[in-house]
Specification:
By secondary structure, the protein is α/β, with parallel strands linked by helices. Helix content is 47%, strand content 10%. It has a single domain, classed as TIM Barrel. Helix 7 packs parallel to helix 10 and helix 9 packs across helix 10. Bound molecules: coproporphyrinogen III. Pathway: Porphyrin-containing compound metabolism; protoporphyrin-IX biosynthesis; coproporphyrinogen-III from 5-aminolevulinate: step 4/4.
Length: 364
């Protein structure tokens, strides 16, 4: 592996490994995104997936929030999308403006259309190249996060053909074709394993699995359909790294909306960090997971629309919740989901400043 510049800020890696830190490390999901004028300026000249496939452009977008919030932000996340995995499986995905699959999987027989024995490293090598270039360009300022989508969330896009409110088509699969559904979920998981291992080899220092639709399943169905593939990924990544003599990196799971599953996820899903949304209080989340994992989250992204007073009040409340009580373990400050367009970038700066202030071990 190429030698990278020495890391100057390892706060998030220490927190992810379960250590209490002098203050909470902080980053936000979708930090390179449409709320940033510099993102919109570059995006005006390139299509979304063109940027994903062009390492120099993906690197540039990854660095934008790091430059703007230098000294305040503790991690970069590679600019890409969870939908590059369905693309690697041979599906066409457009972004206009939301994701659109012209030929979704309608019935189990359609799985035959997916690419057989995908060479993940060949199909997604452009992501690895973006990661390696970004690691060099970061010059050790903060760690770089790699990611993928969770099988259940990707399954839903591949079957629905885009975003959905009803989940009608993918739930038809789960409940009419449960065995075929599980086989497809495992198949997606196997691509995710190779993809995360490749990202780690290329320089990713922490990886996150986004299960954005976890909360659409009942606790029973989450355990039945999503959890097995999430475990397959954590175990598969660790086994492949060990076999290749590559040190493990921390793994984060963001099972959005699956707050009822927190205790069992902390117990045996195989992740170091669990990301939570804002529909559970930090104290309740910590009570559910004990000291088995670090927690990441969880301010409602909508608070960023509320102005400085609201942001300060809610960061203080969040910090007190995560710090309070016995057995408090590590905390990575973040929003409970991605930052949304329309947020004033200066208000995000204020969010970071408030996290620094209220999460410090000396803060009252
Ligand atoms: C479900 C999901 C997707 N993509 C992702 C998820 C999981 C996280 C979540 O639940 O928000 C993950 C993602 N997407 C993007 C990143 C980049 C890294 C980061 O800054 O966090 C990450 C980590 C860039 C992006 N991915 C997308 C954009 C905006 C598209 C544009 O530039 O036109 C960005 C910056 C497009 C995208 N990609 C996806 C959707 C639904 C959309 C369109 C609507 C939306 O923006 O929410 C699929």
């Amino acid at each position: 592996m190429a030698a990278f510049p020495a890391l100057k800020n390892d706060l998030i890696l220490r927190a992810a490994r379960g250590e209490e830190t002098e203050r909470a490390p902080v980053w936000v999901m979708r930090q390179a995104g449409r709320y940033l004028p510099e993102f919109m300026a570059l995006r005006a000249h390139h299509s979304f997936f063109e940027i994903c496939r062009t390492p120099a452009l993906a690197k540039e977008l990854t660095l934008q929030p790091i430059r703007r919030y230098s000294g305040l932000i503790d991690a970069a996340i590679i600019f890409s999308d969870i939908l590059v995995v369905p693309q690697a499986l041979g599906m066409e995905v457009q972004m206009n403006p939301g994701p659109h699959f012209p030929d979704p999987l309608n019935v189990p027989a359609d799985v035959a259309r997916l690419a057989q024995d995908v060479d993940v490293d060949a199909a997604l090598g452009y992501v690895y190249e973006a990661i390696t270039q970004t690691r060099h360009a970061l010059a050790g300022e903060v760690p770089l996060i790699g990611f993928c989508g969770a099988p259940w969330t990707l399954f839903s896009y591949m079957i629905e053909g885009g975003g959905t409110k009803t989940f009608q088509k993918c739930k038809t699969w789960l409940f009419k074709y449960p065995e075929e559904s599980k086989a497809l979920l495992d198949r997606i998981a196997d691509v995710c394993i190779d993809f995360l291992v490749g990202q780690i080899k290329a320089g990713a220092q922490l990886v996150q699995v986004f299960d954005s639709w976890a909360g659409e399943l009942s606790p029973h169905d989450f355990a039945e359909f999503s959890l097995p593939s999430l475990k397959r990924i954590s175990a598969g990544v660790r086994a492949k790294l060990a076999a290749a003599n590559i040190p493990a990196v921390p793994m984060t799971l963001f099972p959005k909306g699956a707050n009822l599953a927190l205790a069992s996820l902390a117990e045996n899903a195989g992740y170091d960090v669990i990301g939570i949304d804002w529909c559970i209080s930090p104290a309740d989340a910590r009570a559910a997971v004990g000291d088995k994992v670090a927690l990441q989250g969880n301010m409602d992204p909508g608070v960023l629309y509320g102005g400085r007073e609201a942001i300060e009040r809610e960061v203080k409340r969040m910090a007190e919740g995560f710090k309070g009580g016995k057995g408090t373990k590590a905390w990575i400050a973040n929003l409970g989901h991605g930052i949304t367009p329309g947020v004033n970038p200066d208000d995000l700066k204020w969010f970071f400043e408030c996290v620094h202030k209220y999460s410090a071990s000396s803060a009252a």
